[in-house]
User: What shape does this take?
Amino acid sequence: MKWDRPILTDSGGFQVFSLAKIRKITSEGAIFQSEIDGSRITLTPEKAIDAQFVIGSDIMMVLDECTPYPCTYEYAKKSLTMTIDWARRSKKHFEMIVKKKKLSEKNRPLIFGIVQGSVFKDLREEAVAELVKIGFDGYAIGGVAVGENMNQIDEIVCWTTELLPKDKPRYLMGVGKPEEIVRSVHVGVDMFDCVIPTREARHGRLYVRTKKRVAEKKFYDVLNIKNATFRDDMRPVDKYCVCLLCTQFTRSYLRHLFSTNEGLGLRLASLHNLNFYLRMMEELRKE
Amino acid sequence: MKWDRPILTDSGGFQVFSLAKIRKITSEGAIFQSEIDGSRITLTPEKAIDAQFVIGSDIMMVLDECTPYPCTYEYAKKSLTMTIDWARRSKKHFEMIVKKKKLSEKNRPLIFGIVQGSVFKDLREEAVAELVKIGFDGYAIGGVAVGENMNQIDEIVCWTTELLPKDKPRYLMGVGKPEEIVRSVHVGVDMFDCVIPTREARHGRLYVRTKKRVAEKKFYDVLNIKNATFRDDMRPVDKYCVCLLCTQFTRSYLRHLFSTNEGLGLRLASLHNLNFYLRMMEELRKE
Assistant: This one.
């Protein structure tokens, strides 16, 4: 891959959710059936940590079950007990490898616990308490953005961030749209991961800042570059943006690249939306 | 487009061939019917030159009819008469614009005539004689690689290169595979254009040099990166190649990019095959 900057990896916990049809969960781990040859692959908390060491990850996640939505209280409670047990095993295995590899406190990767508990406040509270007892370098909020509405996500995030240690990073998994990120930062989230900026870009939807600050409503517009209206538009996508797309090419040219299925269009649009997100985060940090 | 290096453009003559179903040819030019709204677009020799000036081309082609294969002698002869007439009109229009724009001999673009005449020797000879009379900066050999076998192409190329002026570049349009390029250079061709290196790359077929020189048989192998055999192959595609792909990534990683439909795979493979072609041409120039 030859990526020489920091790498954050998930554990496979999201696939326990997204590949539900071809997996079984036992207390030992998750057993996946290969789509290709039907063979069985067991993912345990220990194997998930091993894999992340092979990748050379700098910030690792423990293996968890990302519960589906909706989900009964009983299912969520039982799942959480297992997720906490897996977190404990993950941490133990992680420490064993760090010791074996003789990695110093400064050179070792970081390991994050993942708060589950579905939409149930007492379960989320229990999750935080138990994970903090085990002790992690940071805490992820998982099991969100899998079907709930945004008010529910806000609620879960608020419950959780209030209880999490103030001196450790908080990472909201799988979120989100620009306004969702802004709201989450305002209630104390530090880190995000999401396919939205690049996936939207590949569909020709480009974020353009309005003159509003990120704390205000409508701080961006979405420009659908495939629209006929851009056919002869010789302006950059966003004249204030410093990305490769905006400094070198016109809306008309980008539309042409999309119309003719030129791969360069996907690349330029992705670079632009990522730049939009980076500038948004920069502004949020300054606030 | 922001391409700041030399640009060579075709005139639309190939589309007179490839879009045969939706066009009519008259002595004035080719009339295309728009696939989108059925509207008619007339491409004349003059308009083809105008368009190439708009693009900012450095090497322009005259409008011609690229005859289909097979093609009767009568059709080819009649078509050639028109192609020569179009070449004359193209040159005249080109000179008028150069004068109007006050471009010096050093700063003006170049204009190439295109030799047609299908597979008929006397027509090819007539084409060369007439085009040389008009006078061009270089001469393209057109109407090949549209269905003939390689022996026929070789024959046409040999007839034509023998007659073309020795002090002007010869450009074989639409050719070709590495060995076809080598053979054509050996009979006096200087320039080529072809989709093969990039199209093959996008299909996962990568050229790798053997230890043979380009003048020898089997001077390259084709590696189909999608093959299962490369799944764990940690070697570069070509260990002697200096391209981005070969200096940074393994066969296994490239195969992974193709398996998961990552756009980066297409890009790296294209860069590699283009590098292979550039090195091949370098070696041919040294011979």
The mean pLDDT of chain B is 96. The radius of gyration of chain B is 21 Å.
